[in-house]
Amino acid sequence: MLTIRNLHANIDGKEILKGINLDIKPGEVHAIMGPNGSGKSTLSSVLAGRADFEVTEGTVEFQGKDLLELSPEERAGEGIFLAFQYPVEIPGLTTTNFIKTAVNEVRKYRGEEPYDAVQFLKLMKEKMKMVHIDQSLLSRSLNEGFSGGEKKRNEIFQMAMLEPKLAILDETDSGLDIDAIRIVANGVNQLRNKDNSVLLVTHYQRLLDYIVPDYVHVLYNGRIVKSGTKELAFELEERGYDFIKNEVNEGQ
Ligand code: ADP
Ligand code: MG
Ligand code: MG
């Protein structure tokens, strides 16, 4: 699904990612954890194709294609969903119309006919039930005046509608309260199947009580310094990130 080799990336000439290696196979959920400032959001941004990050070395392959050559729109067309790709507030554009455009852009990219109103409504109804989102939220302007929980629900709804092959969720929000955690977890758990993969970027062990990952990786100072299974998340919860820092520093 996704193969990252020796990925290095800069922002403003400063190296943030210093050689990331990661393999994600179909059906797997990988969690990336790590202390603040270790480069977690930078990794998500680079995979999203955000222009302010410069890849200086390494490769990223997604389903056999060179991901780094693709625009953010092409990445979406290939089946990558990035939760923080659409955080913008757009007055006058309803959430429904926004999602309809996004879904049909992806279909167009794949050479499929756009959904007509009836087909789209059917899909909406099915997914609304799945993520427990209310019609009234979807009729409002995109993200305008949405609470934190509503933004999260909307984001997960977009993910459900787009049925991505690989969902990348960067849970940067320090205000990720228990409701938001449940919304995200429910959405991810619904998406999980043998063909889809999830890269869950989080600072919080607590999220992993609700989404049980197949693998956990610790990112520290721009490198994955430790990988394991869900037991690693428990260890981090118990011991904090300091033991990782000590292990890395002793090894140098
Ligand atoms: P994390 O998500 O793990 O907390 P980030 O990827 O956000 O870490 O940040 C990694 C490093 O990159 C930090 O030292 C941060 O200060 C720096 N950084 C992130 N974004 C920018 C930016 N836009 N300009 C300059 N430095 C940045
Ligand atoms: Mg941070
Ligand atoms: Mg971050």
UniProtKB/TrEMBL annotation:
<keyword id="KW-0547">Nucleotide-binding</keyword>
<keyword id="KW-0067">ATP-binding</keyword>
<dbReference type="InterPro" id="IPR003439">
    <property type="entry name" value="ABC_transporter-like_ATP-bd"/>
</dbReference>
<feature type="domain" description="ABC transporter">
    <location>
        <begin position="2"/>
        <end position="246"/>
    </location>
</feature>
<dbReference type="InterPro" id="IPR010230">
    <property type="entry name" value="FeS-cluster_ATPase_SufC"/>
</dbReference>
<dbReference type="GO" id="GO:0005524">
    <property type="term" value="F:ATP binding"/>
</dbReference>
<comment type="similarity">
    <text>Belongs to the ABC transporter superfamily. Ycf16 family.</text>
</comment>
<dbReference type="Pfam" id="PF00005">
    <property type="entry name" value="ABC_tran"/>
</dbReference>
<dbReference type="InterPro" id="IPR027417">
    <property type="entry name" value="P-loop_NTPase"/>
</dbReference>
<dbReference type="InterPro" id="IPR003593">
    <property type="entry name" value="AAA+_ATPase"/>
</dbReference>
<protein>
    <submittedName>
        <fullName>Cysteine desulfurase</fullName>
    </submittedName>
</protein>
<dbReference type="GO" id="GO:0016887">
    <property type="term" value="F:ATP hydrolysis activity"/>
</dbReference>
